[in-house]
Amino acid sequence: MHDMVNPYFEELSDTPVRTKICQRCGQHKHIDHFAHRSYSKNGDRETKNYCKDCDKIAQKLVEKIKKQIGPPKPDHVCDCCGKTEQAILTEFRLHQGTKKKTVWTYDHDHKTGLFRGIICQPCNTVMGNLKDSLDVANKVVKYIKKHNER
Question: Which CATH architecture group holds 1-50?
Answer without folding.
Answer: 2-Layer Sandwich (3.30)
